[in-house]
Amino acid sequence: MIAEAGHFALVLALFVAIVQAVVPMIGAHRGNAVWMAMDKPSAISQVLLVAFAFGCLTYSHVVSDFSVVNVVQNSHSLKPMLYKVAGVWGNHEGSLLLWVFILAAFGSAVALFGGNLPPTLRARVLGVQSLIAVGFYLFMLLTSNPFERVFPPALDGRDLNPLLQDPGLAFHPPFLYLGYVGFSMAFSFAIAALIEGRVDAAWARWVRPWTLAAWSFLTVGIALGSWWAYYELGWGGWWFWDPVENASFMPWLAGTALLHSAIVVEKRDTMKTWTIFLAILAFSMSLLGTFLVRSGVLTSVHAFATDPERGVFILLLLMIVIGGSLVLFAMRGPALRSTGVFKPISREGGLLLNNLVMSTGCAVVLLGTLYPLFLDAVGGTKVSVGPPFFNSVFIPLMVPMFMAMGFGPFLSWKRADIVQAALRLKIAFIVAALAVAAVIALAGEGPFLALVGLGLAAWLVTSTLVELAERVKLFREPLVASLGRLMRQPRASWGMTMAHLGMAIAIAGMAGAGGWKVESIQVMKPGDQVNVGGYDYTFVGARQGQGPNYTIIEGTFRVSKNGQDVVTLKAEKRNYPVRQMPTTEAAIHSLFSGDLYAVIGDPDGQDGGFVTRIYFNPLVAWMWAGSMLMVFGGVISISDRRYRIGAPARRNRKPAVAANP
Asked: Which architecture characterizes domain 518-619 according to CATH?
């Protein structure tokens, strides 16, 4: 009965979503306050129903109810509890249920904490949000029912894909979906603004917290995915420009542009139409990623479904949402007049350059991802678009943007003097040049783009710190006064500083790992030694073991440098008997200078030899440290009182006392 109750709750949620999509929207059109007030109870009812359905599916996985098809196909009685729970969303049907749950949760958050929104705008935002939900409810109930029964019940399950039985992949999808679905809020605000025909500074301030939240969640999701690929796949890399990786990267690029564009709308009342377009684009890229993963057009460890019926349904949904929003944009967008004017050399101009580069980068990734699929679909020659294309096109495109990130905060609104800004940044130019010279002296000449990357990282760190120093008037006022200014900085300013510093640290990590990685592949017997990156790896031997639902071959490596022991690494090769599928668990030890990385492969011969892969990845951990600092900056910005959805009520002013005649 648990599965049937969950299914019934989803059907009820569909009808509630239809009511939420229709009644408040009509009420907003007619100015009927009673009908508009239906948005809050319907949004809360919807999230409670979906939460109940999600709880029912989770319960079925936890107790291993093998009368439910979803549990049979994605679970096993011996699977650890963490992966029984993660199995709920580690498949097509369950991930869709998680998607609509998050969608309903965002809608209920607006209903509960959006009391300062105009009633008509809130009704339209929640109406648009619910229209999206209706499409996904229909998709799930008609083609992807997570509560489908099997009779007779199976004796045991087929287990979850072993590649997904990992902490990184257990939490990667929820954060990714929080980012994807989070951009639906920016989309809903944009469509509501087009319907009302009004975009102003207040609208930009309302939309920014939701965009920041989505961007932060998506950053965590992408970082977790790259971290998982780094240590689980055993190839020593962290990003391969896989089409499904690109599917998460494209909305991140569009969302980053949207964040900066909304600042211009809020501060200068300009770039309104462009900001609306970016809000549509960010969510459209999220929907495109959903289509790629679930349509069967891609073969990937990330992909869920290969059913053409599902692919056609979600393609139709994609066309309705994106096509309908673009038609509305074409009709109503030109009416959004901007009053702010600015020169190309200004802070607005710098933010516009950020937008153009980010949008062009998104277009490049989109072209590289879809062109091979399109060519294959029309019967053309099969082509492979991979790292060489993206590295040679996308990375150089980002260079001017990172330079502009340093200049931007030093430019005035409306018009600025770039020469004066450059003079204030002379120390950043010097530090960047010294950083490149130091790298060449210590590590030798590496790839040109890697040297540029490290120079840009030094440039961005220094320019960000110089901007912070100028903001608090360091060395221009007494130290105590500067510290006081530092403590009084708005949280949004702190968030910007930390996000820019995090980006600089991440760039340094990418440049170091991409430019100076050292790799060695060989067969090693117990006692054999190999030197990689200045470290001596001695293969101690391998042993067999047993995990909860897998067998293990564990290889031990003793690592030393200049005769001094550094660390002992234990790498694993696992085999899951139910799926008959092996996985790799790399042994990694992170140092400030880089990662010591060892992988054990298959046995080779009868004398105890194993294929091993040894890597030294310089600065690679800096990428994830920088990513987390960026996320922390986003969280700090969201907590700024000015962007808080539930802003405190204004204080009542005492009436003025009339003067005696």
From this structure: Sandwich (2.60)
Tell which phi-psi region holds residue 64, choosing left (phi > 0), alpha (psi between -120 and 50) or beta.
left
Cβ atoms within 10 Å of 637's Cβ, excluding its own: 26
Q: How far is it, in rounded angstroms, from Cα 74 to Cα 54?
A: 16
What gap in Å lies between CA 261 and CA 286, rounded to an integer? 19
Instruction: Count other Cβ atoms within 10 Å, centred on residue 352.
Output: 21
Cβ(464)–Cβ(406) below 8 Å: yes
Report d(CA 122, CA 107) in Å as an integer. 10
- Cβ neighbors of 362 (< 8 A, separation 6 or more) are 250, 253, 254, 257, 281, 285
Q: Both tokens of residue 40? A: 């809050």
Per-residue pLDDT of 331-385, as tens digits, reads: 998 888 888 889 989 999 999 999 999 999 999 999 998 888 778 767 767 777 8
Count of other CB atoms within 10 angstroms of residue 380: 11
Choose among 368, 360, 415: nearest CA to 388: 368
Question: Within 562-619, where are the H helices?
Answer: none
Among 8-12, 241-245, 302-306, 542-546, the range with the most confident prediction by mean pLDDT is 8-12
Inform me whether the pLDDT recorded for 654 exceeds 50.
no
* Residues whose CB is less than 8 angstroms from the CB of residue 622 and which lie 6 or more positions away in sequence, other chains included: 505, 506, 508, 509, 512
For range 155-160, the mean pLDDT: 91
pTM for the full predicted model? 0.92
Q: What's the pLDDT tens digit per position in 220-231?
A: 999 999 999 998
* C-alpha radius of gyration, the chain, whole number: 27
Beta bridge partners of 567: 559
**Cα separation, 506 vs 498, whole angstroms:** 12
Question: Domain-by-domain residue ranges, the chain?
Answer: 1-160, 424-516+622-636, 518-619
Cis peptide before 152 (omega within 30 of 0): yes
Distance CA 159, CA 84 (A): 9
- Considering only CA atoms, which of 567, 566, 585 is closest in space to residue 575? 585
Backbone angles phi, psi at 574, to 5 degrees: -105, 150
- With tokens 């120390």, the residue in question is 427
Q: Which residues are 424's β-sheet partners? A: none
Q: Which of 66, 86, 70 is nearest to 156 (CA)?
A: 66
Asked whether 289 and 295 are in contact (CB, 8 A), the reply is no
How far apart are the C-alpha atoms of 530 and 513, rounded to whole Å?
20
Asked if the model's pLDDT at residue 651 lies above 60, the reply is no
Q: How far is CA 479 from CA 348, 437, 470, in A?
A: 32, 33, 13
Q: Which of 8-12, 58-62, 491-495, 631-635 has the lowest mean pLDDT?
A: 491-495
d(CA 421, CA 193): 36
